[in-house]
Design goal:
The protein is an alpha+beta fold. The chain is built from eleven helices and 13 strands. The strands form four sheets. Strands 2-1-4-5-10-11-3 form a seven-stranded antiparallel sheet, sandwiched between helices. A two-stranded antiparallel ribbon has the order 6-9. A two-stranded antiparallel ribbon has the order 7-8. It is elongated. It comes from Pseudomonas qingdaonensis.
Length: 323
Amino acid sequence: MFTGIDAITRSPHVSGEAFFLTESANGLAVSSVQLEPAVETELTRAFAYRLQKAVVEPNDGKAAVPLVSTALERDKLVMEYDDVAIGHLPAEFNEISRVLAFGINAPAPRFDFNQQSLSQVKGVVYLLSDGQGNSVVLYQHKYPVSLHKKTKSSFCSFNGRTLGKVNYDAIDINDTIDVFYYGGKFYTLNLSLLERFYGLEQIINNLAHSATPLILALGILNIAGVAAPGDIFKDMYRDRAFMRRLAMVSKGNIVRQGLNVAQIQGVMANFPIFARTIDLAGGMVNLSTKEQKRNFIRLLNNEASFTALDQTPFLAVEKDSAA
């Protein structure tokens, strides 16, 4: 997989163009950034190498990568952002893909370092091309710590010999790739970032909250004495891995097909972890601890599996299709 990206990074004609994604009262905007030739060479080399190590090599021979909509605990791996299934495409992504439309006849507006502030920069967009019409768009989110604002007392050495006054702000740009756009699809290597800063957390929370009434409707939970059954998972809301799983329950088949205690007992007989952590006292599912809730949701997500060779039971985190 990603053989096209591999070819781009190895091309003797590979080059890069930089853009800033800015956010202000006027909204989001993409501006081109003129680079010194040595800087362009350095950034292009760094991003090409990072693509090889983080994207191309780990996925060599694979037909597909995991989807964000089915992500559970897989972070720092390449995942396809399947926005249709998720029901959310960050506005920033539209701006990132726009750089492919810029050209001689429709150039991007230039970032003016004299008039615009680097504090408005939300991310760096880098267009890597092979000179033959093939390209990949990279995006690196910028945190406030990346910005170094000048003050009246800011000095540094520009030549390694003398100390001079700093007249401009500075920004750090490393080889981190948080999102990339290739072949008409968005991919991410940083799911946590999308949750925190690009609206994905709220989408997951909404799906997770919609799962609770579906689970209650199964009629297998012991809610006697529970003042607010709809809040039965409220103590788990800060557990992001749990919330991803709970969100997947809302889209799964189990809550729609139905589930009874006898079926759960059958699973528990083959999977000791469920036998230890799922309480069926009184003929109902009792969820009094966080561990019980975690494993019950894993059961509802159909994560119980067996190895093909010796039928050893295990919990499948990724659940990628083996068909």
